[in-house]
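Ticket #4471: structure export looks truncated?
Reporter: QA, pipeline team
Priority: medium

Steps to reproduce: submit the single chain below to the structure queue and open the exported record.
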Amino acid sequence: MHQTLAAFLAQPAVLIVWLALSLASVGVLLADFRRANPEIGPLMKVVWALTTLYSGPVGLLIYWTTGRKQIARDTIWRRGWRSTAHCYSGCGMGEIVGLILAAGILALGTTPTALVTFAFAFTFGIVLTLGPLLHDGVPFGRALRDSLLSETASIVVMEVVAIGVDLWLARDAGLGDVLFWTSMMTSLTLGLLAAWPVNVALVRFGVKEGMHDPREMAAA
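Actual output as written to the record:
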């Protein structure tokens, strides 16, 4: 299975098609922001744009069914997806930077690559939560504590899956290999899916609030 999947992902056509789908999905997303959902806040627009850029049609589908004011009703499942996307946007950026640095540029071994990538993903994910809290006037110590409490479980599950899949598929791939990039996008998306039930549980048990109902944002 590993060899078959790796061989498929190593084809240039796969990368070209995925990039085309991702760019087209981002285009649809931006058009929807402008025409149908201008009330969405700047932070969530960035969250949805990054989620869709990383995961293409999968990210766009999550936005379309959970992030628009046109949804029929909000549920904990939708709140879980919005919360996951928020975490994913920061962690995904950190993972990309970490993998490019550790595996692509420094050509580190498996364990150092995993540790460096996780460190970048964790830091980026926490900062994306910490920043808005500090902007709202929350003291640094409390903001950091709240960020760690609300995001650590989600980040750990997301990155264990994503980094594990990426190293499994493309352990020896370099920046010049198609497999390096297609494996990264595949692993990111699987990490996104794996973190969703964790975020649903965190919202259900009150550990995190989940992102606001887009219909409430529109009404405001």
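Status: closed, not a bug. The export was complete when the record was re-opened. Leaving a note from the reviewer for reference: Residues 2-219 form one domain.
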